[in-house]
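Contributing new complexes? Match this layout with FE2/S2 (inorganic) cluster.
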Amino acid sequence: MVNPQDYIQEAPWAKVDMPRNEFRQFMQKNNLYGILNTLLWIISLFGTGYLAYLSLDSYWVIPAFFLYGVMYCACDARWHESSHGTVFKTPWMNTALCFIATAMQQRDIIFTNWSHVRHHSYTIINDIDPEITVTRPPTFWEHFLNFFSLGESKYYIPVLVKHAFGIVSEDARKFVPEEEYNRMFWWARASLLLNLIPIIVAGLTQSWLPLLFVGPLPKMYGNIIQRSFVLAQHAGLDEDVWDHRKNSRTILVNPFFGFLFMNMQYHVEHHMYPLMPFHQLPRFHRRVQDQMPKPYKGMIEVYREMIPALIKQSKDTTYFIDRKVPGAEEPQKVVRIKEMEASSAMIPMAAKGAETVMANQTTSAVPEELEWHAVTSVKDLASNDVINVKIEGTDYAIVHTDKGEYYSVSGICTHEHAYMADGVVESCTISCPKHNSKFDLKTGNALNRPAKKALKTYPVKVEDGQVLIGLAAETIKS
Ligand code: FES
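Output block (do not edit by hand):
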């Protein structure tokens, strides 16, 4: 079992400069956009599916099924966004969409989501990120096959079957924590069951048609656009660098592609702020574009740059496209502590220290032993707002809820390195900006995975318009 932090020195990812209150506006979720987008997708899916059915005895059958396949493969973007919890405000709606969209790709949500958690924590960091689409030197044949989902299906279907039969796949051991195995098996069974339905119907009706509409086949004949886009997100760019502006691309595309990709064309912005709702990304992109590398003007511009770069990388693996970030210092490169053995099986950091810390220290602390530190003025902390303060080298998140209560919790998430002050405050909870774990502000307890360990809580009081945090003397010295 391997912890990535045993191999690399953890460092914070680069952020943009923006007033806190303005940033909070961009993090506001809303069910409406998610519902409209999902309804439009379902209508498109059934509409193009019906056209494909009508075209069966004509030459139109090829374009009609291609169009249906393109709509079907848009499930990839739906899985992706709902796994981040950024489609809907209501969590169960994200889970429902995530399940359907992963099952449509013959995957289970636990395995897929944990893989993606690792991808976001260690984007394009070699040996650690399980979702590097193009490793160096590139293997062109593999990428060609994946335009028709052939490599993906060969990989994901056996993984799904294994998990459904209670066998942990080799890769799951690398990034899915053991205590998640049971849930992974059950979600895999549900996904497999859903995928068996068209096979059973095909058998009963003695017709291939159900298989043409649901399962691996539509992924094969309709994947080319979605796959071209996935390739364009990171391929040929820098690696082992703590700045998403150097290893990801934002590509301006037409509204149709924007709908298919669910705004993931704003990929730099998405990677920097993975909890930002999908519908906020275009506006956020416009707001911060002066701090970003120039966006690409379309997929053709990306491929014109990317293909020669990949050819160069096949001869020189040190080559990469160096994206210029206006006004930014040279990004921090990943510092390796030691080389990772090929056989190393990683587990996420969340699997460490499984014990839950019941951290309601607000009430247990003895007032006389506390040192009170003024951290901010009440007028600088809006409703549902949070700031980070550093005291003696330690980070604390100071929170003001919409009920007028003040809280303080540890400034760094207990799962991986993420500043809680970049998270979202609502209903006496704070969500981590990196993987969306929610913490109870009163107790610090983690309410959902991947984080399991509670945040520490600290007493807070307001005096003379100042917010003060109480820290035990030994906390400050240690
Ligand atoms: S860093 Fe993963 S939930 Fe916070």
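Reviewers usually confirm one structural detail per submission. For this one: The pocket of FE2/S2 (inorganic) cluster is lined by residues 413, 415-416, 418, 432, 434-435, 437, 450-451 (CB under 6 Å).
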